[in-house]
Amino acid sequence: MKAIVIHAARDLRVEEWDMQEPGPGQVLVELKTGGICGSDLHYYNHGGFGAVRLKEPMILGHEVSGAVKALGEGTAGLNIGDLVAVSPSRPCGYCRYCQDGLRNHCENMRFYGSAMPFPHIQGAFRQALTVDATQCVKADGLTTGEAAMAEPLSVCLHATRRAGELLGRRVLVTGSGPIGVLCILAARAAAATEIVVTDLSDQALAMARKVGADRVINTARDGKALDSYASGKGTFDVLYECSGAAAALAGAIPALRPRSVVVQLGLGGDMTLPVQAMTAKEIDLRGSFRFHEEFATAVRLMQNGAIDVKPLITHTIGFKEAKEAFDLASDRSKAMKVQLNFAG
Hints:
The chain has helices spanning about 40-45, 95-100, 145-150, 150-165, 180-190, 200-210, 245-250, 275-280, 295-305, 320-330; strands at about 1-10, 10-15, 25-35, 50, 50-55, 60, 65-70, 85, 130, 135-140, 170-175, 195-200, 215-220, 235-240, 255-265, 285, 315-320, 335-340. Strand 17, helix 10 and strand 18 (about 335-340) form a beta-alpha-beta unit. It has ten helices and 18 strands. Helix 4 crosses helix 5. By secondary structure, it is an alpha/beta fold.
């Protein structure tokens, strides 16, 4: 079968890879759609991020959906032909964090397309993928593109759980890429009363407005636009920091109320924090990393119409044109979410 393999920065190849037959409790999924994530782009453009670097060729991808093609022995609840969203989260279930219910912090996590461990964990951008049946969530009624969006939506649902109560809260989102936009949808579904979004790109902010942001602000053009929210010790109850930029976080702190919550999703490397200002306001800083149990919830929220991810899918390109797709996904002025079509 064919797979999309990164060898080094800008060295992306579509090449042959061995297919694995499903064993007991496993299924073979014929891939239909795969979404290009920000981490995929870091590997493509830079060979990694931070201290995480490519040390061997690695299949990319972890946002995927497909149709069940074969069932391993003892598999229940799935049938040949079912459309499934495939969770890339594969905790061991035995370490102390799994036992404590913190499965996204599993010490032996096997998360598709990750160069954190060595040997690397191979990714999901391949024509056929053998997975544990427990990774599959039936996605009846969704398009294959929507089903592939379950993974990034799960990231934002996990962040929303980390944020705490959002009913009636005022929310600020810094960074309007795919994760920022999905955080808008998640916060609205959690009954946030006002959502303001900042970014440096008018194109990205247009998408934020399209999915329901109450106000969008281009901070490249108006660096003082948040000043009006700083009076009275601040306005916002929750900040979703999705840019990974220290300047975005520092610029948002004056607009946050005392005892507000900052949920940090953006992974742009180490950041200098305005600790004194955060301390004086008793602001909680909460990290948000991956997800696990939120994956099935993401599928259900799309199925029942509570969250509509379709506007984010701006381009779908055949997987054999992977390099062109990755170049397009790297251009924020042209694309929000680029997906690969494996069905052709």
